[in-house]
Amino acid sequence: MAYDKFNILTSTAVPLPIENVDTDQIIPARFLKATERKGFGDNLFRDWRYNQDNTPKEDFILNNPIYGGEILVGGKNFGSGSSREHAAWAVYDYGFRCVISSFFADIFRNNCLNIGVLPVQVSAEFLQKIFGEIEKDPKAKFEVNLPEQKVTILATGESESFDINTYKKGNMTNGFDDIDYLLNIKKDIQEFAENRPI
Amino acid sequence: MSAKKTLFDKVWDSHVVHQIENGPDVLFIDRHMVHEVTSPVAFLGLKNRNIGVMHPEKTFATADHNTPTINQHLPVADPLSANQLKMLEANANEHGISYWGLGHEKNGIVHVVGPEYGITVPGATIVCGDSHTSTHGAFGAIAFGIGTSEVEMVLATQCIMQPKPKRMRINITGELQYGVTPKDVALFIISQLTTSGATGYFVEYAGDVFKNMSMEGRMTVCNLSIEMGARGGMIAPDEKTFEYIKGREFAPTGSAWDKAMTYWETLYTDDDSIFDKELTFDGSAIEPMITYGTNPGMGMGISKSIPNYDETQGAASSYKKSLQYMQFGEGDAMIGKPIDFVFIGSCTNGRIEDFRAFASVVKGRKKADNVTAWLVPGSHKVEAAIKEEGLLDIFTEAGFELREPGCSACLAMNDDKIPAGKLAVSTSNRNFEGRQGPGSRTLLASPLVAAAAAVTGKVTDPRELMQEVVAG
Ligand code: SF4
Fold first, then answer.
1. pLDDT tens digits, residue range B137-165?
2. Any idea which positions bind [4Fe-4S] cluster (chain B) (predicted)?
3. Domain A8-195 maps to which CATH number in 3.40.50.10420, 3.20.19.10, 3.90.228.20, 3.40.50.300?
4. CB B270 within 8 A of CB B239
5. pTM of the model
6. What are the residue boundaries of the structural domains of chain A, listed by start?
7. What is the best residue among B410, B414, B431, B435 to mutate for testing ligand 1's pocket, by most ligand atoms within 8 Å of CB?
8. Tally of domains within chain B
9. What is the ipTM of this complex?
């Protein structure tokens, strides 16, 4: 599925300074019953966000109107657990275009890249600086510059560069996906398939 | 002279169709397993692009994540679940994919039925939209979980784009103690590495412990590779592997078998191969394990006490939040904690050997009154074996009921949800907050530990009960 191109994002951020946020927290299994990619944002962090009677939990960050923006900042090992792409869909559908953490689980990172959410891995120190900045000023803005592979705390000008492979970067900045690429080399794949032993 | 290669390199490299500079490899996929939850949007994507499935004969569909485990002969009550099942069936039929739906004799959990029917073979690349696809690595295959965009990718092109992971080897030497199972070995490794310790790596398990392990045990270990963050785990195929596969329905036969064997026998890590990381543990030091927190890395020997924060890795706030959720305190002993539920099943521990182990402890005993137990076979084949081997009689005698196959309380998408606040000993793979139902609390353990808890109503070292049996 094609998605919007990603270049430079300037936004406030929502902090979630918890480690090992797993995909069952991002979207619990009981909300995976849809057969279309719609509406998952409503159930993002469902059980942290709502009580069992569906009233909002006041102390959860997404229910605090002071915080908002298109960047989600999470603790180390963000997105561990299940392969459900619904987790990335929920993040996207809620309105986040970028997740910053000091470490991502593999499948979640891939899923994000495949649907147009940019996972930005920064050092543990820089992550703390970002959390610190939001704590000081919930309206603090950050710039995520994909072409330059750099994230900047605008108030202080401090920045750090991040890694992304050239291919995926190209996809994100152009809004392409892998299937477009693979369909272009279909003939090679067919030839390869014919020579498989099993 | 050709370069020394690891098992992983041999299989990976032989599947690379294309290499993209400073980008992922295009990897050919030999087997694609599909289930009802992570596939509908992928099939929809094909429709939108107006393309079909490139290799339906390499694609296998089963319904498992969202199926009821009682009264499977009746229509599925939940309309959303019923719709997902209907969609999978329609999609499979439309694209000519074999579909083992609810009620089909081959139905079961995707990672249980793959090996059972010989779909899983050494040296293959196997993917599925479920992270525990790593199970199939037990056969020397490269197997890993993928997201829905990738499911669409594989349906459309039989390829996936993946950066090549780094290589890690984990050696477990020596001999396991009595009462220590493959599940304990896996939980031990995860407790040592943490849930992110192998992120970015593909793991090979080696050493005597794995050599001596049954195929089902190897599946349990490889299954849990993802819980330490690894892309997958694998074990070099040996006589045991070939023996297991031979004669299964989808396994090669005749000259195809001989050809396959010629390839399979080359699948081992060459001496002096280089790993990016190598770890060695003493298998004889592992005891039956149990988890106490909200990720599988928070595990310890069953006789130990919950560590204080400063003895652990990671942030204090996250550790404390986790224990608070579990309603446990630092320094608590696990032994003796009263429990409410026992779940035996899942692709981690829902095979026949797991039910045999469970039966060995509950035989001649009674289910504790305070315990609700869900015994869920991984497949109809497992269910049939339970009946044939007389295990069902042992269970019935001891006050247990057997349910029908499916993922069940492993992810609690169907009605099998552990109620809020209740404490469950589960043989599945994740103890995340609410994984087994909103507010549920999970202790991960082996079938032996689950059995000991089921008959005593509290966390109990199974060796105490087993010794009685041995002595008697
Ligand atoms: S049993 Fe659990 S882990 Fe295994 S396939 Fe089903 S949901 Fe996934």
1. 999 999 999 999 999 999 999 999 999 99
2. 347, 407, 410
3. 3.20.19.10
4. no
5. 0.95
6. 8-195
7. B410
8. 2
9. 0.90
